[in-house]
Hints:
Elements (H helix, E strand, L loop, with lengths): L6 H17 L5 H7 L5 H13 L3 E3 L7 E3 L8 E7 L14 E8 L9 E4 L15 E5 L9 E6 L2 E10 L2 E5 L8 E3 L5 E11 L21
Antiparallel strand pairs: 1-2, 3-4, 5-6, 6-11, 7-8, 7-11, 8-9, 9-10
Helix pairs in contact: 1-3, 2-3
Amino acid sequence: MTEPLTPLERRVYHYLIDFLAENTYQPSIREIAKKFRIKSTKTVSDLLASLSLKGFIERDQSRSRGVRIVGYAGQASTQPVPYYGRVHAGEPALIPEHRLGYLTMDRRFLPTDDVFFLRIKGESMIGRGIFEDDYVLVSPSTRAKDGDIVAARLGEEATIKTMMHRGATIVLEPANDAERPIEVGPQDDFAVLGVVCGVFRPFMEQELQPTIPVPADAEIH
């Protein structure tokens, strides 16, 4: 079993990943020292040596930026997917102010480049295997058809439901007998945000730090 990282080692390790994703090259020892306010470059070198010993990175001592992150394939096979805490009334429904951050995904799981994540609150879709606190992956450029699970906006509220048409009325059907369908007419403030194309359920996770204050009821139902 890999030896766990210390809090500082974990912060440096995450910094190496984030820096590489943004710049396509690794930070220098002096840049790491500046980032974490470490006075001695030897201390940084020791941190990198520990990360290497624990199997998280590999080092090439002959190069000034000779760090390779083990298991990280970089831009060739991953993509940061935005995660939103709420939706905006009107268009566009997804705005930067409501973006909480990004979740890096293997591109093999992404059907389109414009996908985004929402998080589930409530149990309206448990019959389709979507539970509270799940992350749903939504594809806005995939055309929704009857029977698809969609992310939809009703005013300032977002919901995940199965979509069906009944004449001019759109019915958003829950997958829970305890809840009633939602009927949407032509005059309602409604928009389909996209088709749900994946569900991710972390059993243990680090808390995502919002970039803005988010109301407690901002999760997606």
